[in-house]
Design goal:
- By secondary structure, the protein is mainly alpha-helical.
- It has twelve helices and four strands; from the N terminus they run αββααααααααααββα.
- The strands form two sheets. Strands 1-2 form a two-stranded antiparallel ribbon. Strands 3-4 form a two-stranded antiparallel sheet.
- Strand 1 and strand 2 form a beta hairpin.
- The longest helix has 16 residues.
- It is globular and about 60 Å long.
- One of its GO terms (biological process) is response to oxidative stress.
- GO terms for molecular function: heme binding; peroxidase activity.
- Keywords: Oxidoreductase, Peroxidase.
- InterPro entries: Haem_peroxidase_animal, Haem_peroxidase_sf, Haem_peroxidase_sf_animal.
- This is Peroxidase.
């Protein structure tokens, strides 16, 4: 698989988790996990300065508090009508779905049915086969847009797939995500657990680091965080950022490296 294909697949992964509302709103949370405001993505395209200086802590709390949205083919209009709009008052923008479908065509990404073969999944040989693996009612919709089921784009087909084994995505998208992570890790010659990069004490410290610690250390005034950031917290789950329950990395194990640089 070419690098161009992988780059396109990476882009596909990034857009699979969206939802349908007229506007894409980020809820802003107080330290006690109460919503006190919201902001629209449409008003902040290519304008990160205000976000970083005014809302970063509230957004970090929101990321660790809100439930994730369902993965499906419903997209907010902020992404399909106003993507990269130059100014909030502008009545138009770009369409992320159209852009990504065009990218897959530009880079020669195989169709959905062809890509399933790469993933080792059961081949689709008929409309009946397609109906068995797609969300109920979606096959008819797809065949109204495509002259033949073999023409269905990878992005479209993957998002219409039935989810399996309590997964958030179908088997084809799961294959893409797995492939992306494996290749990214294997291609990184500086990945932290490769031989002769860090000693055993340093590796132990690195493995202590959690997303909770990263949120605590890289925010301005976030003072509480739950240990398991990917689980929605109750107030009892919130720990002070200086608590031992959210371990810090001990940089003293890198002191010999500092001494080497001084020499």
């Amino acid at each position: 698989m070419s690098i161009a294909v992988l780059l396109c697949l990476k882009r596909i992964i990034l857009i699979i988790n969206n939802f349908y509302e007229p506007t894409f709103l980020f809820s802003l949370y107080t330290e006690h996990r109460m919503i006190n405001a919201s902001l629209s993505l449409k008003e902040h395209y290519n304008r990160p300065t205000g976000l970083l200086s005014n809302y970063m802590d509230q957004l970090v709390r929101g990321l660790s508090t809100q439930n994730t949205q369902k993965v499906d083919m419903l997209f907010t209009q902020t992404l399909t009508n106003y993507l990269y709009s130059a100014h909030p008052s502008h009545g138009f923008g770009m369409d992320i779905v159209s852009l990504d479908i065009q990218r897959t065509r530009d880079h020669g990404i195989p169709s959905y049915s062809e890509f399933r073969k790469y993933c080792g999944l059961k081949a689709i040989r008929s409309v009946q086969d397609l109906s068995k693996i797609m969300v109920e009612g979606s096959t008819d919709k797809l065949l109204k847009q495509y002259r033949d089921w073999t023409d269905i784009e990878l992005l479209v087909g993957a998002l219409f797939e039935k989810h399996e084994d309590d997964s958030m995505v179908g088997p084809t998208m799961r294959c893409i995500i797995r492939e992306q992570f494996i290749r990214t890790r294997m291609a990184d010659r500086y990945f932290y657990d490769l031989p002769n990069i860090f000693n055993e004490y340093q590796l132990t410290e690195i493995r202590k680091v959690t997303l909770a610690r990263i949120f605590c250390d890289n925010s301005n005034n976030v003072t509480m965080m739950q240990k398991k950031v990917f689980l929605i917290p109750a107030m009892a789950d919130l720990q002070l950022c200086n608590s031992r329950l959210i371990p810090k990395i001990n940089i003293n194990h890198w002191s010999e490296m500092v001494d080497t640089f001084k020499k």
